[in-house]
């Protein structure tokens, strides 16, 4: 497998076209005093689009991203974009970090140097990592090929093998957590330990009689959440192509759709802060815009639904728990699942309720996330 260096170089005409579209954005009306009750707030969007058009500097962030060692490689015929930052420590542990939706490989850009050079950030040299952060196919600068989480896990093992890592650790959140779970359950020889910030949700088809009271309460809260916030999942799992026309054509529409999801896990109206800042939020949206991958990224939901439920309309039975040691970092603005829910699918050795942060903790509170990841892997991999 040939690995080629890669740098992000967005053509000027793409940025000029974006600027024109932002200038011509046609905003809808809004129910007076609605705030965020009906979805992404109008005043917020007008302010964001103005900032995006007149103050945000893509070239600045493009240059920052290009400071990271980026590559592309064909893995099983799929072109995969990835960051591969090596530690100066020859004994560094390899770790593969997997993002989710609506984020991207950008989720982990802040913590990458904290893992490769922990001493610089108050850590210990023995906690160093070689960091690999791929863009899931269908996202960013990888091929626009929608793949299921299990297929992505298969791809990651082949990528790590090609990079000469026979054994490695893994971490992730959102869909990246599910990919990481598949790595642990399917490849226990290759994967030595995993770290997750969420572990998946009840589907409503579980046998409640086998669930603890805490699990039943968690399932109830998830059912309520899906009723209030789950429209994105339903349409992306059933009619992603219909949605893709609007999101691929309108930058304001793309931003509003992504922001609506981020807002659901924010601290009140602090949407920008939930993603680490306004520039971070826009850089992530830009990655979708300049690569035109919003369609393929949401199509993954449909592929996953087909694989999971098939024609029968029922989810498959849960597999036996993985034996790979697992650490859970449960941030306070994530869904608060009990330990026993995680233990249904994982060999949980460490379960930590974090002091602050939410769904995008690696961006919002990178030091907190990186510290727990380093401590967890030291505990789980030290014999």
Rounded to the nearest angstrom, the radius of gyration is 20 Å
CATH class: Alpha Beta
What would you call the quaternary organization?
Answer: single chain
State the total count of DSSP E strands: 9
What is the count of distinct domains? 1
Largest sheet: 9 strands, mixed
The spatial strand order of the largest sheet comes to 1-2-3-5-4-6-7-8-9
Structural class by secondary-structure content: alpha/beta
Strand content: 5-15%
Cα separation of the termini:
34 Å
CATH superfamily: Alpha/Beta hydrolase fold, catalytic domain
Percent helix = 40-55%
CATH topology: Rossmann fold
Q: Tell me, what's the shape?
A: globular
Q: Overall mean pLDDT score?
A: 95
Number of helices: 16
* H/E topology pattern: EHHHEEEHEHEHEHHHHHHHEHEHH
Second CATH tier, the architecture: 3-Layer(aba) Sandwich
- Unreliable stretches covering 5 or more consecutive residues: 312-318
Q: What does it look like?
A:
- The structure is a single chain.
- About 45% of the residues lie in helices and about 15% in strands.
- β6, α6 (about 175-185) and β7 (about 190-195) form a beta-alpha-beta unit.
- It has a single domain, classed as Alpha/Beta hydrolase fold, catalytic domain (Rossmann fold, 3-Layer(aba) Sandwich), CATH 3.40.50.
- It has 16 helices and 9 strands.
- It starts with a strand and ends with a helix.
- It is α/β, with parallel strands linked by helices.
- It is globular.
- The longest helix has 17 residues, at about 215-230.
Please write out the topology.
Elements: E1 3-5, H1 12-23, H2 42-54, H3 58-65, E2 70-75, E3 78-85, E4 93-98, H4 112-116, E5 129-134, H5 149-162, E6 168-172, H6 175-186, E7 191-196, H7 213-229, H8 231-238, H9 240-249, H10 251-263, H11 271-274, H12 278-291, H13 294-309, E8 325-330, H14 339-343, E9 347-353, H15 361-364, H16 366-381
Parallel strand pairs: 4-5, 4-6, 6-7, 7-8, 8-9
Antiparallel strand pairs: 1-2, 2-3, 3-5
